[in-house]
């Protein structure tokens, strides 16, 4: 089969802007009772409040029984999400105050993947049959590394060892040739800190696959990368730009902490930000915290990665100020001690939203600084050279 390179203007699918093409479960069974996988049967919706396991007495370690009122609240939240996704076009979801309000109230586990698909408008890029055609292409050279990284990153998730995650990454890499699944080189800092380029891709795709059916995960991955993260993986200056802006944001919020980390310890800002941003904190935060960060990130965009990072710095402040080596600082930031995090995911989000950061200013500074660096480092580059491409089978 012959292929050609084309630019990433994928035709909208017949399902663009519609949530009906996703299986939308009703939270109520025919007999009037809640489904077993309804979030009313669990606390995974992101709005429940938990103490950490170490704070519980042995008698409290049993899963709590929710009251009828709590179950009804979960049920109503699920129904509100189903209604919102049915009435608000996916292309407008990130502009909707109603969607934002629902996000802050919590995302029921039973509809989370539909919510993520809506926030990324993944149906607007979906093309019927393309995923399977991409997956049938000759394996990318890095396929053995992909399989190895999956075994290492998701050893506790046997459902991702069935070949689905490797297939998803293979399909993506054959479609997007400017993203290379090769071993990334760490910026200044110990090589034990965080994830490199390829592990970042695996962690992001793996998190999506844990929430979604395989092909839905693929198209959400495509949309997420194109909207937010692809520049981090395609040899551009975006990560350096964001790391520089993050360092300034930390200095604004806590000059003492910024001086300790970036001055006294001599840690480069990119060393801190790279494993955070390139894995969207998948290698850093506990699962319940991670899901809530992703809920909000997919609505707010990259600026929320700044906020989450500043929240981690705030929680780890004492540990960092007491540290005597860059390695101990980076270890705390990559894997915050349980006592450094707020008691529950909602408190973490509150902390993230409370930091001093003007999101619109960050967006403007990102564009301005990236243009300055490109002019300085690539003065003779063709305008087309930096335009990402995708590789699709010829029709």
Quick summary:
By secondary structure, this protein is mainly alpha-helical. The chain has helices at residues 68-87, 97-105, 112-120, 130-135, 143-153, 164-175, 197-211, 214-233, 238-253, 255-264, 269-277, 287-300, 303-315, 317-322, 326-334, 345-354, 359-377, and strands at residues 3-6, 390-393. It has a two-stranded antiparallel sheet.
Q: Would you write up a description of this structure?
A:
It is a single chain. This protein is mostly helical and about 400 residues long. The protein contains 17 helices and two strands. It has helices spanning about 70-85, 95-105, 110-120, 130-135, 145-155, 165-175, 195-210, 215-235, 240-255, 255-265, 270-275, 285-300, 305-315, 315-320, 325-335, 345-355, 360-375; strands at about 5, 390-395. The longest helix is centred in the N-terminal third of the chain and has 20 residues, at about 70-85. The chain is globular, with a radius of gyration of 21 Å. The chain starts with a strand and ends with a strand. About 40% of the residues are buried.
The strand order across the widest sheet is 1-2
The secondary-structure element order is EHHHHHHHHHHHHHHHHHE
Q: How many strand units?
A: 2
Mean pLDDT: 80
Outline the low-pLDDT stretches. 1-62, 183-195, 380-387
Helix count equals 17
Shape field: globular
Give a short account of the largest sheet: 2 strands, antiparallel
> Helix fraction?
40-55%
Q: For the CA atoms, what is the radius of gyration?
A: 21 Å
Query: How far apart, in Å, are the first and last alpha carbons?
Result: 10 Å
The amount of beta strand, in percent, is: under 5%
Task: Please state the structural category.
Answer: mainly alpha
């Amino acid at each position: 089969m012959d292929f050609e390179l084309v630019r990433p203007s994928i035709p909208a699918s017949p399902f663009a802007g519609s949530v009906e093409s996703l299986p939308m479960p009703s939270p109520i069974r025919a007999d009037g009772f809640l489904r077993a996988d309804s979030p009313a049967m669990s606390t995974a919706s992101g709005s429940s409040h938990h103490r950490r396991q170490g704070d519980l007495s042995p008698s409290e370690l049993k899963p709590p029984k929710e009251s009828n009122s709590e179950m009804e609240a979960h049920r109503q939240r699920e129904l509100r999400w189903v209604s919102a996704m049915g009435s608000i076009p996916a292309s407008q979801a990130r502009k909707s105050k109603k969607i934002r309000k629902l996000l802050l109230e919590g995302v029921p586990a039973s509809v989370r993947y539909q919510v993520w698909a809506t926030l990324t408008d993944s149906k607007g890029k979906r093309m019927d049959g393309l995923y399977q055609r991409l997956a049938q292409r000759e394996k990318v050279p890095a396929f053995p590394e992909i399989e190895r990284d999956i075994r290492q990153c998701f050893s506790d998730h046997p459902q991702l060892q069935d070949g689905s995650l490797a297939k998803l990454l293979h399909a993506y890499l054959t479609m997007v040739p400017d993203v290379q699944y090769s071993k990334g080189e760490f910026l200044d800092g110990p090589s034990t800190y965080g994830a490199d380029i390829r592990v970042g891709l695996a962690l992001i795709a793996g998190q999506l696959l844990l929430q979604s059916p395989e092909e839905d995960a693929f198209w959400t991955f495509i949309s997420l990368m194109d909207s937010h993260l692809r520049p981090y993986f395609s040899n551009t200056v975006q990560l350096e730009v964001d790391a520089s802006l993050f360092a300034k944001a930390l200095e604004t919020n806590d000059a003492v902490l910024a001086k300790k980390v970036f001055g006294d310890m001599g840690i480069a800002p990119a060393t801190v930000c790279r494993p955070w941003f390139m894995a969207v904190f998948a290698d850093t935060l506990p699962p319940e915290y991670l899901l809530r960060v992703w809920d909000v990130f997919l609505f707010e965009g990259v600026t929320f990665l700044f906020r989450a990072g500043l929240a981690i710095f705030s929680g780890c402040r004492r540990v960092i100020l007491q540290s005597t080596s860059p390695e101990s600082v980076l270890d705390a930031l990559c894997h915050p001690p349980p006592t450094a995090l707020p008691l529950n995911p909602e408190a973490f989000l509150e902390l993230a939203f409370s930091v001093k950061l003007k999101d619109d200013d960050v967006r403007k500074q990102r564009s301005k600084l990236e243009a300055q660096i490109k002019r300085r480092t690539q003065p003779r580059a063709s305008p087309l050279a930096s335009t990402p491409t995708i590789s699709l089978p010829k029709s």
